[in-house]
């Protein structure tokens, strides 16, 4: 039990009085230690500094936002939070679905100033934890390199890589975390550690798929990249009413495709789309896609194909049809996920679940290929053998029925799919209402991940509602 909780439960200090903790002098000393800014409630810039991507959490009020400008700032923030019993969370892209990077009454460590991208002659890239995917892709492309990663340009590299990192090249090249060679991290004792396969390998293992925020605050990554190549892309839009046929055909077709071909579906009550990439000739891609169309049995209402450079392909996939609303700087929607672990007994029934609510959208990403060639226990990412990942999204604006209705809808899809999906989920799509969430996100790797969390964060400095660290039990209070 930390000091704040003890004081609240004991009644020694009214809840409102906790806003005055820690004392102003301690905050002043912290401010002097920082090279970057410190934003506190009432300060100019605080309302903007505390915002994440999702507008749903704008009512949360951190005790402070540390605009970290150097590693020493991160160390100071972690030490301060540990000393005073405050929650602490890192923010990279701010896309945490439950808003865990906007922590009420705690310290947000804003890593946006850690945005450097250094591409070395040997093809390795050292990337700051605050970099977003769009500048990462653009900088690498200019150097003739690619890091397999997601396609949403505003997502931060840190959260993506720490949870695994799925994208349109992963069947050929593997997950983002499979390309991680080293990471610089500030752990709960405020130490800076550089971890790799040979330096603290247990922590390095955990950072490759063990989820963001669990083991410390990563400030930089070293990735192995691959040579850039042109990408043939395709997009099909099938008539409404073909959702079940498309799902059934795709589940037979995609596993038989070469690793060079990745595809993803967008399914909803009013749409049935398929788009994808092929690292090969456009003519060969069209032959493979023709095979899918024959299996569906209904020609697409729209069909397109073009060859793009990798950066252009990423941008083309940045706004998938089933996303609730256009791409924007900020948004209000909720999401959850399941992983398909074996062939569906009844694709039609699953399609029925996914099209029941006209405001629900589902994005389905292909698995297999290079993802499955890494052992389930080789990295912390547990879903190596999944055939596909399903992400369910629902707008949460008042016009959509609000957050409560959105969560009800995505939960109905999440829990109505059948035994083929099991207790599974993708940690980068955290759902605060996910049943048995720890098993769903970490599977067979859960015991080892919890052991690593206990080793590096024994007092729960980085504890949060769906984190692996045990809740904080003992905190030493002292001067900053």
TrEMBL record:
Pfam family, one: BBE
Signal peptide location: none
Keywords, comma-separated and alphabetical: FAD, Flavoprotein, Oxidoreductase
Listed cofactors: FAD
Highest rank taxon of the organism: Bacteria
Entry keyword Flavoprotein: yes
Record has Flavoprotein as a keyword: yes
Single annotated GO MF: oxidoreductase activity
InterPro entries: BBE, FAD-bd_PCMH, FAD-bd_PCMH-like_sf, FAD-bd_PCMH_sub2, FAD-linked_Oxidoreductase, Oxid_FAD_bind_N, Oxy_OxRdtase_FAD_BS
Chain ranges of the FAD-binding PCMH-type domain: 58-228
PANTHER family: BINDING OXIDOREDUCTASE, PUTATIVE (AFU_ORTHOLOGUE AFUA_1G17690)-RELATED, FAD-BINDING PCMH-TYPE DOMAIN-CONTAINING PROTEIN
Family (UniProt): Belongs to the oxygen-dependent FAD-linked oxidoreductase family.
Protein name in UniProt: FAD/FMN-containing dehydrogenase
Organism: Amycolatopsis australiensis
């Amino acid at each position: 039990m930390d000091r704040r909780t003890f004081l609240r439960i004991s009644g020694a200090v009214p809840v409102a009085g906790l806003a005055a903790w820690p004392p102003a002098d301690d905050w002043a000393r912290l401010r002097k230690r920082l090279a970057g800014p410190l934003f506190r409630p009432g300060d100019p810039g605080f309302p903007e500094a505390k915002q994440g991507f999702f507008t749903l959490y704008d009512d949360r009020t951190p005790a402070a936002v540390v605009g970290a400008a150097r590693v020493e700032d991160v160390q100071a923030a972690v030490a301060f939070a540990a000393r005073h019993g405050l929650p602490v969370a890192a923010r990279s892209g701010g896309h945490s679905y439950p808003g865990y990077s906007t922590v009420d009454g705690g310290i947000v460590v804003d890593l946006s100033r850690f945005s450097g991208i250094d591409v070395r002659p040997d093809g390795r890239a050292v990337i700051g934890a605050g970099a977003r995917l769009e500048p990462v892709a653009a900088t690498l492309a200019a150097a003739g390199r690619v890091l397999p990663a997601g396609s949403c340009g505003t997502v931060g590299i840190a959260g993506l890589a720490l949870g695994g990192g799925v994208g349109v090249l992963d069947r050929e090249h593997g997950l983002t975390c499979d390309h991680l060679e080293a990471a610089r991290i500030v752990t709960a004792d405020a130490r800076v550690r550089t971890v790799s396969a040979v330096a603290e390998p247990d922590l390095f293992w955990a950072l490759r798929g063990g989820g963001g925020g669990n083991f410390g605050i990563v400030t930089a990554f070293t990735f192995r990249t691959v040579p850039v190549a042109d990408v043939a892309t395709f997009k099909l839009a099938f008539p409404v009413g073909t959702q079940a046929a498309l799902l059934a055909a795709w589940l037979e077709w995609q596993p038989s495709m070469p690793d060079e071909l990745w595809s993803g579906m967008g399914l909803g009550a009013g749409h049935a789309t398929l788009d994808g990439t092929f690292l090969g000739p456009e003519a060969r891609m069209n032959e493979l896609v023709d095979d899918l169309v024959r299996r569906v049995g209904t020609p697409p209402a729209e069909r397109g194909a073009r060859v793009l450079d990798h950066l252009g392909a990423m941008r083309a996939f940045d706004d998938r049809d089933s996303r609730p609303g256009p791409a924007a700087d900020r948004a209000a929607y909720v999401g959850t996920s399941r992983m398909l672990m074996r062939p569906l007994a009844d694709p039609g029934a699953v399609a029925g679940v996914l099209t029941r609510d006209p405001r629900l959208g589902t994005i389905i990403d292909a698995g297999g290929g290079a993802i499955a060639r890494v052992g389930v226990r080789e990295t912390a990412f547990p879903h190596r053998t999944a055939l596909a990942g399903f992400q369910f999204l629902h707008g949460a604006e008042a016009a959509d029925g609000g957050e409560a209705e959105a969560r009800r809808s995505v939960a109905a899809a999440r829990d109505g799919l059948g035994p083929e999906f099991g207790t599974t989920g993708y940690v980068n799509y955290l759902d605060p209402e996910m049943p048995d969430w720890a098993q769903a996100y970490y599977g067979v790797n859960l015991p080892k991940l919890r052991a690593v969390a206990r080793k590096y964060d024994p007092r729960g400095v980085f504890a949060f509602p769906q984190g692996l660290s045990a809740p904080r039990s003992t905190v030493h209070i002292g001067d900053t």
